[in-house]
Amino acid sequence: MDEPTGRVAGLAGQVFTYLLVGGSAFVLDFGLLFILKSGLGAPAWFAAIMAFAVSTVWSFYLQRRYTFSGDLHVGHSAFRYGVLLATNMVITAGIVEGFDRAFDLYLVGKVISTALTTLWNFPVMKFWVYPKDRDQGLGAS
């Protein structure tokens, strides 16, 4: 296999792993939310926070280990992941609220915001959160 073909195949595999890990995090989040709220009777807000926290840690470590194999120190990657997460949360809240107010379709807004964040998270994670080279990224932190 020539080098450009190998890079494309490698990128396709990386995208597949990214989507697989992200999908598993979604299933974990959704499943824990259901178990905590419907199974154990926890308040929805508490169940949502706990499920999201567990799935976020799950995703961070699996993306770091299997998808991107970054060279940046785990603390620096965790900080950058937190910045990305906070940005995604603000954008998601805005989209969901906008769809709720404009169309009474907050769930559609959630699906759209998830699709958008999934699209930009891959390059941000690849080149900034989990860079291969410690000097790589949009400024060292």
Describe this structure as you would to a colleague.
The chain is mainly alpha-helical and 141 residues long. The protein folds into 2 domains: 1-55; 70-141, no CATH class. The protein has helices at residues 3-39, 44-68, 74-103, 106-129. Helix 1 (3-39) packs antiparallel against helix 2 and helix 3 (74-103) packs antiparallel against helix 4.
Q: Which helices and strands, and how do they pair?
A:
Blueprint: H1 3-39, H2 44-68, H3 74-103, H4 106-129
Helix pairs in contact: 1-2, 3-4
Short recap of the structure:
By secondary structure, this protein is mainly alpha-helical. The chain has helices at about 5-40, 45-70, 75-105, 105-130.
